[in-house]
Amino acid sequence: MSTDPSQDKGPDLTQGVTIESLVDGRMLVGRVGEDAVLLARRGDEFFAIGAECSHYHGPLAEGLMIGDTVRCPWHHACFSLRTGEALHAPALSPVECWTTEVREGKVVVRGKAALKQDKAAASAAGAPQKIVIVGGGAAGFAAAEMLRRQRYQGSIVMLSDDDALPVDRPNLSKDYLAGTAAEDWVPLRAADFYTEHRIDLRLKTRVAGLDARARELELGDRSKLAFDRLLLATGAEPVRLAIPGIDLPHVHTLRTLADCRAIIARAATARCAVVMGASFIGLEVAASLRARGIEVHVVAPERRPMERVLGPELGDFVRRLHEEHGVVFHLEDTARAIDAQHVALNGGGTLAADLVVVGVGVRPRLALAEAAGLAVDRGVTVDAYLETSAPGIYAAGDIARWPDPHSGAAIRVEHWVVAQRQGQTAALNMLGGQEKFEAVPFFWSQHYDVPINYVGHAESWDELAIDGDIAARDCTVRYKRQGRVLALASIYRDAESLMAEVAMEQDAVQLRG
Ligand SMILES: Cc1cc2nc3c(=O)[nH]c(=O)nc-3n(C[C@H](O)[C@H](O)[C@H](O)COP(=O)(O)OP(=O)(O)OC[C@H]3O[C@@H](n4cnc5c(N)ncnc54)[C@H](O)[C@@H]3O)c2cc1C
Ligand code: FES
Hints:
Helix content: 10-25%
Largest sheet: 6 strands, antiparallel
Distance between the termini: 58 Å
Oligomer: single chain
Mean pLDDT: 95
Radius of gyration: 24 Å
Bound molecules: flavin-adenine dinucleotide, FE2/S2 (inorganic) cluster
Strand order of the largest sheet: 1-10-9-4-3-2
Structural class: alpha/beta
Number of strands: 36
């Protein structure tokens, strides 16, 4: 048997592959030296870019090629095949790009191409001088990054009442909490990124007020900060339960890096944990604590975990999956009180707990927008361009309720990728663009080795169509209303998830006529 590691990476693309071996619209993986390279064909054009997604190293060759772009199978980032640019979050960094040439019936990959900076500097007359972003999370960071990617030359001030650099928040309930991701995975960028890109990131800085007319913010120390364009990206905060003992030191919520570190510190000596809430975050926390060898009990009022979002079949699957890993559920029950070593349940039981994590949902942080008199309707109301009722003030992420062209409703979601993409769209529009936010919502959740991807948005459905075998972890679940697919959840069916996303995009175009 061959043990040559280069064999695993496919053909040597510097030697070329025959044109016939690459069908139009297809991709293959080969190597250029030590690099794994994706070679793609579109008509008579050939493209070569890095084969691994710059988000979490997803295999791009298993993704979907659409025109001169490729979408990652894992979390639907999108890259330009021409330049390697990360066109859609969650990837924010480009992948490398190589030049190709056709020679004697073969396509040959040549040297690395420099990343094209073909964007005009966005500093023309009329561009805003001062852009301020309130929020150092998914939307705020993606906006700042996109502003500089567009070669915006003016001032960017980013205000965050957190004490940490913008972090990869989804990781806080998954690998980082489980102890399987290193500390340096957590920040979205190192501190010098902000200096190099002239992003004036001010941590531990609370914004206390907004005067929309005067275009001015009031900070926690009562100082004022003027802006030409403003992005509100204040995110959400965990709901706190009003029960005795909720303020005890071993009772935690999870939103920030500090929250996560506090749970990890407690987990070092904890033997039994109670997780309140069978939400995505609650159950991801349960899985991560199990990875640390802690006994975990989940207490939640619903009959099945995640039934409201995923339906009964996937809900039952998720429950079984966690039970197989030793999690004990106490469903249709709630906590009545907490003391130093126990959680008392309304159903009469008592659970031992030297660590309690409360994951019972979040509330969007709307106070600033409300006090400033912006239109608010269970979220900050924005138009298709993500502009609020106050001209020049935009909102993105967990706080924004936008007119979703796919469901035809104004929706607000709490998804990482949506927040980042909205931040990117808001950035373009703050620079004078006219870009509608039309992305199909997407989120993922990870439980042990099982990823669940969800594309679309279905608050309710009249038909649920299962294809494949949920127990075998190979399935799609389509949520339909009047025959129309509103959303699709999938386990290990990434190509179908991507194709559903594209179908929903096309569907929305047809609906608009
Ligand atoms: C543990 C965890 C795991 C998650 N996992 C997933 C996942 O797997 N998949 C998924 O799709 N989504 C996931 N999410 C949800 C996702 O992280 C959020 O939808 C996303 O972070 C929202 O981005 P945002 O920019 O709106 O808000 P945030 O990322 O919360 O950022 C808000 C920022 O605003 C700042 N801020 C708020 N108010 C003020 C103020 N008055 N002054 C100054 N600063 C202020 C905050 O400090 C923070 O920096 C997870 C969330 C958590 C907490
Ligand atoms: S690994 Fe590619 S989008 Fe996450």
